[in-house]
Amino acid sequence: MSESPPKPAFLRFIDPEARREYEAQLPTPEELEYINEHVQAQCDNFEECGVTLTRPELKVCSRCKDARYCSPTCQKSHWRRLHKKACIPPEAATSKDIALRLAKQALLVPVVVDNLHVIAVTVLDLLRDITAAQNTAVHVICGVGPADLTAHMRYLITHGERDPNAQVCFSITATSAVRFADMPPRIRAISLDGRAKITRMYAETAQPASPMITFWFSTEDGGGDSNTFAATLPLPLEALAWMKSNPRNVVTRRSAMYGDQEVERTEPVLRECFNSLIRQDTDNRMQLRARLNRTSGN
User: Fold this and answer.
1) Which of 85, 173, 287, 297 lies in the 20 to 30 Å Cα band around 270?
2) What is the pLDDT of the chain when averaged over all its residues?
């Protein structure tokens, strides 16, 4: 008898066995370093140059430490067109700046990507029509939330405001389906290029083609044309197989207060589980935590 596909582990838990299962899926520092060295990234001036290289091959903006370029020519052009207004040093970064930087880091963490895939299947309704992914993307609204909810509530009750020096972590505030035709032109061009490159990879390696999912990340205000990005990722066939094997359309949500609960697999539930996954990483092994007030230290 063949084994059933593994169940994506994005659920809240407290019991020791669940904690061990969770920690076993977190990347080691060595794994994160390897992924960072080999993952492909597009030059931030991509709409002019069309260049995609590994992250180390792209030169990082010395001021914001975020934008990446394939050449000094591209950096100068992008500075004049867009980046001059968006270039903010890390110590002056706002919550929206931090949210998008953490979103880029999130795409380097396999367990996070697994959960994004499950959300995408639900948002795009791919179990009903897999072809929907060919012309529709998942718009992910990014934010940051309290890394320690208990400490956050304690400070809020005591001081009547949020702790300005508290640690925050990456979170998703909303997801929705958006047609490529309705995306900003720059984001649409980047997305289509990513799809073309993945298609060529399948053709060159003779691998079975998987559906492709495009994620468009922005902040609540849309992020502007320069402070937003997109990424196209293959959807593992095993993720689809697991979801198809779950005919009751439920997921198990683990809670310290209520234990295991079967709940309907909806976008709000999956988003809640995703954010809980990030908060559970108290040791910051996924590197998805930061501080809003960088001047006071980390």
Assistant:
1) 287
2) 80
What is the average per-residue pLDDT within 14-40? 62
What gap in Å lies between CA 191 and CA 79, rounded to an integer? 22
Q: Residues 140-176, buried b or exposed e (16+ Cβ, 10 A)?
A: bbbbbbbbbeeebeebeeeeeeebeeebbbbbbeebe
Helix, strand, coil distribution of the chain in percent, nearest 5: 45, 20, 35
Distance CA 36, CA 155 (A): 36
The yes-or-no verdict on residue 147 having pLDDT over 70 is yes
Among 181, 230, 190, 199, residue whose Cα is nearest residue 46: 190
Q: For tokens 């396999």, what's the residue? A: 110
Q: pLDDT at residue 179 above 90? A: yes
Banded pLDDT at 234 (limits 50, 70, 90): confident
Note the pLDDT tens digit of each residue in 279-293: 888 889 899 999 875
Query: Can you tell me whether residue 234 is helix, strand or coil?
Result: strand
Give dist(CA 218, CA 209) in Å, integer: 28
Q: Residue 2's pLDDT band (boundaries 50, 70, 90)?
A: very low
* Helix boundaries (H) for 160-218: 185-205
Where are the chain's structural domains? Answer: 16-38+93-296, 39-87
